[in-house]
Amino acid sequence: MRPSGRTLEQMRPIFIETGVTKHAEGSCLIRCGDTHVLCTATIEDKAPSFLKGSGLGWVTAEYGMLPRATNTRNRREAAAGKQSGRTQEIQRLIGRALRAGVDRVALGERQIVVDCDVIQADGGTRCASITGGWVALRLAVNKLLKAGAVTSDPIVDHVAAVSCGIYAGQPVLDLDYAEDSEAGTDGNFILTGRKRLIEVQMSAEGATFSREEMTKLLDLAEAGVADLVEAQKAAVA
């Protein structure tokens, strides 16, 4: 039995509320169980300097966690004067994932910055950030389309992410913190709406895993991402 009482293949409840901030071109609050992330997308009318003259657009991300997102207070990274390696790794992951669902030629020479701020953490914050980040990005691009700033839709597919792992000897979908902290194997799976893989992060934290187990986790991830994509569609409808 999982600590939450869920079945092995059961996701946490997913809620996505859009338009939660006044100024951002796209915004949403995504809640995956007790993990809550505020995602905003900002359109900048020029691309980064390394893309100047290329005709290509860019999508990037920044990620942060509020001091009391966890059960003990974490010091703000700004107070420490630098980002942690974990934060840098996660925001690069979010940016890579979201770019995989974008036609950068169609986007034109501009940049969209997706900010993901974790309000409350209970496992899977990077996955929730990617899933909610796509919704914020979609809403921002809708404004470009409505304004006629782009002539064709730069977003080519949905992008969503979910965690899976081996907990108590069983493959389970959508790990919460209680499971993530005890899992023998932990993985994050990022897929498109067409079930194309973007990135897979897997590690044997307590015990090694077999190819068969990895396949079972991928099967769970595909089903979980399908649920997340349906939630994205409902949010932006």
From TrEMBL:
Q: Tell me the keywords, alphabetical order.
A: Nucleotidyltransferase, RNA-binding, rRNA processing, Transferase, tRNA processing, tRNA-binding
All residue ranges annotated as the Exoribonuclease phosphorolytic domain in the record: 10-140, 159-223
Which reaction does this chain catalyze? tRNA(n+1) + phosphate = tRNA(n) + a ribonucleoside 5'-diphosphate
Q: Enumerate the GO terms in the molecular function aspect.
A: 3'-5'-RNA exonuclease activity; tRNA binding; tRNA nucleotidyltransferase activity
One GO BP: rRNA 3'-end processing
Q: Does the keyword DNA-binding apply?
A: no
**Pfam families per record:** RNase_PH (PF01138), RNase_PH_C (PF03725)
Return the Gene3D superfamilies for the record: GHMP Kinase, N-terminal domain
Q: What class of enzyme is it?
A: transferase
Tell me which CDD domains the record gives.
Answer: RNase_PH_bact
EC assignment: the record states 2.7.7.56
Which PROSITE patterns does the record cross-reference, listed alphabetically?
RIBONUCLEASE_PH
Instruction: Give me the residues that bind phosphate, please.
Output: R86, G124, T125, R126
Specify whether Glycosyltransferase is a keyword of the entry.
no
Q: Subunit info?
A: Homohexameric ring arranged as a trimer of dimers.
Query: What's the stated role of this polypeptide?
Result: Phosphorolytic 3'-5' exoribonuclease that plays an important role in tRNA 3'-end maturation. Removes nucleotide residues following the 3'-CCA terminus of tRNAs; can also add nucleotides to the ends of RNA molecules by using nucleoside diphosphates as substrates, but this may not be physiologically important. Probably plays a role in initiation of 16S rRNA degradation (leading to ribosome degradation) during starvation.
What is the similarity comment for this entry?
Belongs to the RNase PH family.
Tell me the HAMAP family matching this sequence. RNase_PH
Q: What is this protein called?
A: Ribonuclease PH
**Source species:** Albidovulum denitrificans
- Which gene holds the coding sequence for this protein? rph
